[in-house]
Design a protein that fits this description.
By secondary structure, this protein is α/β, with parallel strands linked by helices. It is about 40% helix and about 15% strand. Helix 9 crosses helix 10, helix 14 (about 430-445) packs across helix 24 and helix 15 crosses helix 24 (about 675-700).
Length: about 950
């Protein structure tokens, strides 16, 4: 107790006491005021700027040096630093259908804003209704003091969604109370993130001035509209995946797409690209691949057939999607005299989609803040985006939605989890931007041989130079998300901590460049710089901002001393006032005879003298009781109250000055968003390459040889995901020879008929083959002893059973639709992976379909194909067609036991061991016995001849 009393003796001894206006480490002791300054600045009213400049010149403030520990941490390799970008890799906005229940029967009288007469409302609610009428499809959060309030239908809806208390607010004598709910303003981001994930759009109405004009309401206005596709806030975004916003324009009535244009942008990273193609199926597949957070189009709100189920579709007016309006907006946004350089002259629908997307962005961004800068900001891009880049279907390996699902590229089929996907197996990236880059590579593999070889060379260089790889990863690990940090700075929403994180990342660029100085490959050499403008930008941020600035931008404590003379003068004045408070505390202690007296500050009550209840009766007469608490009494003195106004005025001026200087710094950083993002893209590619190299080096991968032909030759290939999931067993490697002579010089098969028991590994072998081809085309090494393969134009898979009951399609109909798509679009350079074609119907029908499909793929198309089946009659195709071969998955029978060897070898199997598999699965013994009896009778009396006499095969 004595120690606690001793700690409370003096305000000056403990600057972290409640109400300490200058929390944290104490400032250097100020020198005495010069006579020329003290009279006007300390004892009289608020000093003007000239007096502050004179004070700063007479008493220059020293910039506090970075602590040695902090400097050492910056220079360290960051081994212990965690990834600053967290988030759910699979996180995506939920469907609008998840927005929660609509208000039901038992509703308040005024349950919708349209039911009230605005003239009868109080001024605040009248303004709310005006704004709500302008944004009827958005949830309106209206700032009142320290809360965001919502009324009428929004209050009813959000009280249910967010589990808030539904209360009421007086709307005037004629109306009484209307529904109301609210959230604290400091928790708005968390609640808004929840609403956006549910597919809702949120309009934020903020206070635009600190104090109202005499006799007027506080001015408020919409400052931000949050929609699933336009969010910038870190807490609302998945760190390791893009948040795509799409705009679609159709050439026709809009219900069934003929020719269409698509614009795609990620406002958080600045990526912007457009395309134009034909066919509703291709538009549907493109949207399924992108999984956009939001799709806008100039059409009705009802989802058209080309829009995948579950996507948020926002209907807009047609005007922004007009050719003239779109062209004008593109020229204005990117400050172009002509659009010829964008290459959109022959892609009018793509241009219109780009214009509509930009127009939608303009409606969701905050208006310029009042002041001199508003005129300059008018017409400027609120969010920095790249110029739109035109891309074509042939620029990447084509993977339809079924193939992406079956190969489990970024999520598993069962549960949609990241773990168990190819991305999970390959992602060792150290930064969020590197994770997004690797995801894009996996979702869009290359078809250009030179580009693939360039990535391969970089991966090989990193695999071979382990010290280089580890050094790069150590530098990358603490690096922030430069792409999104630059975007927030450009949009004017970056915090001081965002700018410090950005500066830290930019300061690492020269160190990365030094590490790759001797590298030969193009992607690594691109990081050699130089980056003089970015180094200067980082130095400017470091010069202005302290190393660990506070979260709030309006309460000071952001900038170093010595940055601005006016700010230094204000801080000198505040130091003087703090010294006066310390002297006053000592004077009042002597006057009261109470060594435990404390002078403190409360945001509501201001400065006060606190004494215990036991000593409250012995205070001096000039003290005025302010507040009584359970354990203490609080008093003020006339002199203390007189000084309080001056202190608060100085503090407000200092905070406002800091905020203005910070906004100017943020504006300059935002202007450099383009160069920052260009450097960030190279860093992201480096991170993705280092990730592939790390997996290759630690997993025993090989560099595949790319050929000009069609062959697919894998020796001792392994499944990249399954081998990482196995714990107690090792993965059984298998060979694959397609469109190339076998090891013994046998003819080269284009199609392999793969047979074997259930659960023996046929589906795993199919997926493994597709994943190895895909990995080779993203420039990665692959898990195999050796590999030689040609570049595929498409990968098709038909693996597993699935239905689509919502659209009235059974499992068999879905299977046939997917098979038809493959037969219509496959080419000789495609890789086709089929599993159990024809199993969903009668035996003879299914066998006939399977035979015809396999025959067409081998003879009619010549596509490289693995055809897994339990129809052993298809083994006969190898005798009838020269480009068909047989393979089987081996099993070993030991008595009544069946051992799966998971080894693929040449030759066809004659049995599927389905009954043995049923027994292993736990089917009752009596059922298993009966099944064997029935099987014996069927085998004794049935024989199916497919390709024998009678022209069963066109090659027979």
């Amino acid at each position: 107790m004595a120690r606690e009393v001793q700690q409370q003796l003096s305000l000056a001894d403990d600057p972290a006491l409640q109400g300490d206006l200058f929390g944290g480490a104490p400032e250097p002791v100020a020198s005495p005021l010069p006579a020329s300054v003290s009279a006007s600045a300390a004892d009289e009213g608020a000093p003007d700027d000239q007096a502050l400049l004179a004070d700063a010149s007479a008493r220059p403030r020293r910039r506090r040096q970075r602590p040695a520990a902090a400097a050492a941490a910056l220079e360290s390799d960051g081994e212990q630093a965690g990834d600053p970008s967290a988030g759910d890799p699979n996180g995506a906005p939920a469907a609008p259908g998840n927005a929660g229940p609509e208000p039901d029967g038992d509703l308040p009288r005024w349950h919708h804003h349209s039911l009230v007469d605005p003239a009868a409302l109080t001024p605040v609610l009248r303004h709310y209704v005006e704004l709500k009428a302008a944004h009827p499809d958005r949830v309106l959060l209206y700032r009142l003091g320290d809360f965001y309030e919502f009324f009428f239908e929004d209050a009813i809806l959000l009280s249910r969604l967010l589990e808030l208390t539904l209360t009421g607010k007086d709307a005037g004598k004629a109306l009484g109370r209307v529904p109301m709910a609210g959230i604290p303003h400091h928790a708005a981001e968390r609640y808004c993130a929840d609403l956006v994930r549910r597919g809702l759009s949120v309009a934020l109405c903020d206070q635009l001035e600190a104090t109202p004009a005499k006799g007027a309401l506080l001015r408020r206005g919409i400052t931000r509209v949050l929609t699933p596709g336009t969010v910038l806030e870190e807490g609302m975004l998945a760190a390791r995946r893009n948040n795509w916003l799409c705009a679609v324009v159709l050439d026709g009535d809009g219900s069934h797409a003929g020719r269409w244009g698509l614009a795609v942008a990620d406002v958080s990273t600045g990526e912007f690209r457009v395309t134009e193609r034909t066919g509703s199926g291709s538009l549907h597949q493109e949207l399924l691949q992108l999984e956009p957070a939001e799709v806008v189009w100039p059409g009705p709100e009802e989802a058209p057939p080309w829009c995948p189920e579950g996507l948020r579709l926002t209907a807009l007016a047609r005007t922004p999607f007009g050719a003239t309006e779109a062209a004008a907006l593109l020229r204005r946004r990117f400050r172009l005299a002509s659009l010829d350089g964008l290459g959109l002259g022959e892609a009018l629908l793509a241009l219109r989609a780009a214009g509509g997307l930009l127009a939608y962005l303009d409606t969701t961004q905050p208006a310029p803040e009042p002041g001199p800068a508003a005129a300059e900001a008018e017409g400027a891009a609120a969010i920095p985006l790249e110029r739109p880049r035109l891309w074509h279907a042939g620029d990447q390996l084509v993977l339809d939605a079924q193939t992406r699902r079956n190969l489990e590229l970024t999520r598993t089929q069962l549960g949609g989890a990241l773990q168990g996907s190819l991305l999970w197996a390959l992602d060792r990236t150290a930064t969020a931007m590197g994770g997004r880059c690797l995801r894009r590579w996996i979702e869009a593999p290359l078809v250009d041989r030179a580009a693939i070889l360039e990535r391969q060379e970089a991966v090989s260089e990193l695999v071979e130079q382990r010290p280089l790889r580890l050094g790069l990863r150590r530098l990358l690990r603490p690096m922030g998300d430069l792409e999104r940090l630059a975007g927030r700075a450009g949009a004017g929403s970056a915090s001081a901590r965002d700018l410090v994180s950005l500066a830290d990342g930019l300061e690492r660029l020269p160190r990365l460049a030094a590490l790759v100085a001797s590298c030969r490959s193009g992607p690594l050499a691109a990081l050699r710089g130089p980056w003089p403008e970015l180094a200067a930008l980082a130095e400017e941020v470091r010069h202005h901002l302290i190393d660990t600035p506070p979260l709030s931008l309006s309460e000071g404590g952001l900038l170093h001393d010595g940055v601005d003379p006016v700010l230094d003068g204000l801080r000198n004045q505040l130091d003087d006032q703090e010294a006066w408070l310390s002297r006053q505390e000592a004077i009042e202690r002597r006057a009261s005879g109470n060594p435990n007296l404390r002078l403190q500050y409360h945001r509501t009550f201001g400065y006060f003298l606190a004494v215990s209840r036991a000593r409250a009766a012995a205070v001096p007469d000039h003290w005025i009781r302010r507040q009584t608490l359970a354990n203490e009494e609080r008093f003020v003195t006339p002199e203390l109250k007189g000084r309080e106004g001056r202190i608060l005025q100085l503090r407000a001026r200092a905070c406002q000055r800091e905020y203005e200087l910070f906004c100017e710094l943020r504006r300059r950083v935002g202007e450099a968003a383009g160069p920052v993002r260009a450097a960030a893209r190279r860093v992201a590619e480096l991170d993705a390459l280092a990730s592939l190299a790390e997996v290759a080096a630690t997993g025993g991968y090989c560099r595949p040889e790319l050929s000009e032909g069609r062959e697919l030759v894998i020796e001792a290939g392994r499944h990249p995901v399954v081998e990482q999931l196995l714990v107690d067993a090792s993965f059984t490697a298998n060979d694959l020879h397609l469109a190339a002579p076998g090891p013994d010089g046998s003819p080269a098969p284009d199609l392999i008929v793969l047979t074997g028991p259930n659960a023996s590994g046929k589906s795993c072998y199919l997926r493994q083959s597709g994943l190895l081809q895909l990995m080779a085309q993203i420039g990665s090494w692959i898990p195999a002893r050796s590999a030689r393969l040609g570049i595929a134009d498409r990968i098709f898979t038909r693996v597993g059973a699935v239905d689509d009951l919502a659209s009235g399609q059974s499992t068999f109909m879905v299977e046939m639709a997917e098979t038809a798509n493959i037969l219509h679009h496959a080419s000789p350079r495609s890789l086709v992976l089929l599993d159990e074609i024809g199993r969903g119907t009668a035996t003879f029908d299914g066998l006939s379909i399977a035979w015809a499909v396999a025959e067409h793929l081998a003879e009619g198309i010549g596509a490289r194909t693995i055809f897994a089946t339990h129809y052993h009659e298809l083994n006969e195709l190898a005798e009838l067609l020269p480009n068909v071969g047989n393979a089987q998955v081996l099993v070993e029978e030991t008595g009544n036991d069946l051992v799966f060897l998971h080894r693929v070898c040449r030759g066809g199997a004659s049995r599927s061991y389905g009954i043995e598999a049923a027994r292993l699965a736990g089917v009752p013994a009596s059922v298993v016995l009966r099944a064997r009896q029935v099987l014996g009778r069927i085998e004794a009396n049935s024989h199916v001849a497919v390709g024998l006499q009678g022209g069963g095969s066109r090659a027979a």
